């Protein structure tokens, strides 16, 4: 009997146990993917460090991609875009699988549907496993959003599609038309860099990045930023703010820089922190709009993959993953990511 290995994360011990299990067989509408690559998202790091509480034990790694290994007897034979599926196809999938009939799914918010299944976040049990990227296989559940991707896209770039890139695609959707607009992006982490590239392609005339770390400001310029500043030195007035840092002081400061009718999109604050202070008079008199986004919807994910396929060579996406580790060194990968704070660490399988 063929077997596969999974790195089971135990939060109580802050450790990984490498366990071998029989190779899963897809049933019903399930698909089996042989994982190829995982990039470590900030939420992975916060779960590892204990700042974020998830089901325990679990298989981490939701920014993942791989190749189609097998289909269940009732599985769809086309992907979300209608492309035919064949064994060996390179795939990416949304971080969630949501019941399509749920009211939140029907309203375009499948990431908030009741009964949501979330890859890289579920509890590992004998009856429920193979749901994270740090394993040889991922068993894609019914209602998963699956997209076949061209082999020309580098795997480390593709791995980021279903979290950072798709989330920013959702933020760009909420921001509205950008052609000729001035955009302020707070934070030049992976989200912020993707935001630069997408704003550039969307026709923004001015893209300003606020980032305290010098080498990240340099990367922002390569991704399309027209100007970069430290937090204290930025000034001006902006039509759109994309806040990716999640820092309360940054959210407060960038609101002050919105022009009349300006729109602020907040995507970074997904961990516990102090409350944000907002001046109601400024908000009202400035005709400002604040929108928050957690994860993304189906169309955001499709647009994210399309964007990477069309523009991954125009912008230096290959520079986002700064160091790679094999799966057997998962603990070392997490420690490196937390201590050195690279944009992304990659784990190959």
From TrEMBL:
Annotated signal sequence range: none
Domain Alcohol dehydrogenase-like N-terminal, first and last residues per copy: 29-149
Domain Alcohol dehydrogenase-like C-terminal: 191-309
Alphabetically ordered keywords of this record: Metal-binding, NAD, Oxidoreductase, Zinc
InterPro entries documented for this protein: ADH-like_C, ADH-like_N, ADH_Zn_CS, GroES-like_sf, NAD(P)-bd_dom_sf
Single GO term (MF): zinc ion binding
Cofactor(s) required for function per UniProt: Zn(2+)
GO cellular component assignments: cytoplasm
EC numbers, comma separated: 1.1.1.1
Family, per entry: Belongs to the zinc-containing alcohol dehydrogenase family.
Protein name from the UniProt record: alcohol dehydrogenase
Upper taxonomic lineage: Bacteria, Pseudomonadati, Bacteroidota, Saprospiria, Saprospirales
